[in-house]
UniProtKB/TrEMBL annotation:
Protein name: Coproporphyrin III ferrochelatase
Region of interest: Disordered: 1-33
GO molecular function, one term: ferrochelatase activity
Reported function: Involved in coproporphyrin-dependent heme b biosynthesis. Catalyzes the insertion of ferrous iron into coproporphyrin III to form Fe-coproporphyrin III.
One term under GO cellular component: cytoplasm
Residue numbers binding Fe(2+): H216, E296
Source organism of the structure: Thermaerobacter marianensis (strain ATCC 700841 / DSM 12885 / JCM 10246 / 7p75a)
EC number(s) stated in the UniProt entry for this protein: 4.99.1.9
Main localization category: cytoplasm
Protein localization: Cytoplasm
EC main group: lyase
Amino acid sequence: MDEAVNRNPKAGVAGVRGTARPAAQDGTGRDGPGRGDLVALLVMAYGTPQSLDEVEPYYTHIRHGRPPTPELLQELIDRYKAIGGKSPLHEITEEQARRVATTVAGRLGRPVEPFVGYLHIAPFIADAVERMAAARPRDAVGLVLAPQYSAASVALYQQAAREALERHPEAPAVHFIDHFHNHPGFVAALARRVESTLAGLPADRREGAVVIFTAHSIPQPVVDRGDPYPRHVEETAAKVAAAAGVGRWRVAYQSAGRTADPWLGPDVTDVIRQLGREGARAVVACPVGFVADHLEVLYDLDIEARQVAEEAGLAFARTPSLNADADFIEVLADLVLDRLGATRHEAAAAGARPEGQEGQ
Ligand code: FEC
């Protein structure tokens, strides 16, 4: 599934190999001379069932091992059916990983291999770490495909990676990217999509349009413990609104879980209803908390939120997802290259290459 990406510096062309890079031959430990020059990209994402049969184990994993009730399971299966039976998240994640690796390889002049691991379904993050360790990379960067940091998201991915790394002392230090919620290229990419989506609204609706920046809700108790997530979401929204010159905008949360806990709000559907009462003419949903098309975008926004908007008399549009678009791939490549640069800088400052994993 993973492909090794290699750049031949003499030819100056980025190429993709179909086989895993052979392990280094020196056997001298983590970072000794003679090791290969391979950069590993540990790309971590939520994961999605590949068929309706996989929905139950996937949902059970999300619920920390507690199987869903038959009603909850059927409700989730029905949502997948409503978006065509399957979420495109798996294919998009794989393409993002492959393209970032190709771009980084081209800019760095070193071979780069992506190792994709999912939080809630196979191949799990631990599987990706195992494959990464076997490839004997010289450097490794850990990238979670979620822009804002939360103990309920990015921290869980990194924890899964760290636990797996403890079983692989032969693996190099993994340098994690904690968040990119305020990266200028990320903000600019979203702002362009907001501008084009607003421009696509019927002229008589554009004037009274409100942009709603959305992110996945998280349990309120996590927020109460001082989680940076709501601040990150607000910052992304404010920066995108400013870059796109949008005057009327809100932040809302979506896709709250079916649990007993209160969840971070306001919910996007409540905000849409409120805007309807306030006389808005249209809403543009911009999911700043997600970087790909998947169930929460294709169902919770495109079907559920759209229906609520139409019932409230509002036109509805949603900004296109970043997916594997060139502008977003450049952002991810920048992040990885920055992290590798930081790694070299830190190593020089310490007088040695860093061992072990980093804090956040
Ligand atoms: O396309 C797909 O098949 C997968 C879409 C998907 C993404 C996603 C992202 C986030 N989640 C976050 C937090 C939670 C918490 C719970 C929770 C539950 C679900 C369920 C499904 C699901 N999530 Fe998710 N999430 C996606 C899918 N999520 C399906 C289960 C049914 C439901 O509640 O709707 C509650 C866990 C519990 O019960 O204890 C918490 C956060 C993100 C955004 C960051 C990230 O991508 O990691 C936060 C995509």
